[in-house]
Amino acid sequence: MKKLQLPILFLFCLVINAMGADSKRQKTVSIYEVGDSIVDYDINFKNLFHNWTSKNLTNASDYKLLNFTFLETIADSSLLDFYCRVLTSSSKWIGLGSAHSDKTTNGISEIKYVVEPTQSNLDSLYIVKNPRLRKLYEDRLFVQEIKRLYSDDFSMREVKLGKVGAYKSPDLLSDDEYKAFLLDATKAERAMGQLYFKQFVNIGDAIYVVHFRYLDKFYSDYVVCDSKTKKVKLDGFFKGVNMYVDVE
Q1: pTM (two decimals)
Q2: Contact 173, 186 (CB under 8 A)
Q3: Where are the domains of the chain?
């Protein structure tokens, strides 16, 4: 019996290796980068439009990709500051919501990949359910300031480092102190978004916009392309849509 162990083990290994050779490893890649090699900015968007099909996205038919447009190159620091404020504001930034499922029924695999655009709706401040916050949001001047902080009027220079951490627990604050806490917390949140932008976006990068319709609403997704690689480096919506490709 011992003499049979080595041949059987050897045969088993051959079978496993053969199965592994036939099965392809895959990785996820941004939808911008599947297709033609990116040697100029426009190819990102040609790949996007080509790949936006029901084969790759379950709800692709809910969308109509209209066009893409080159806006300008970030020529200097003042233009970089401008786009830092504008593209991180609630009115311009589009986020990505997605759901992925993979189930097998009677040996048939069914994969669903659904995506949808998300945007901040600051009008919801008026219908907040928390009793204390609802009371604070009855102050129209306070709400207007919150909205300003989420607009392109806000600059990270308004933030005083370390100020938010100096507050007591919100439960121990008066209404005026709580308002000040919420304003400073919002400033800190917005400043972090702008700081993130400044870390990734550089002078020389290109700004594009993709116009599309989802269901009955129109959207404009602003995209930053890297001046060196020509690839998309920052985009809240389309860049987060991934496709599976075989690993060579």
Answers
A1: 0.79
A2: no
A3: 26-117+201-246, 122-197
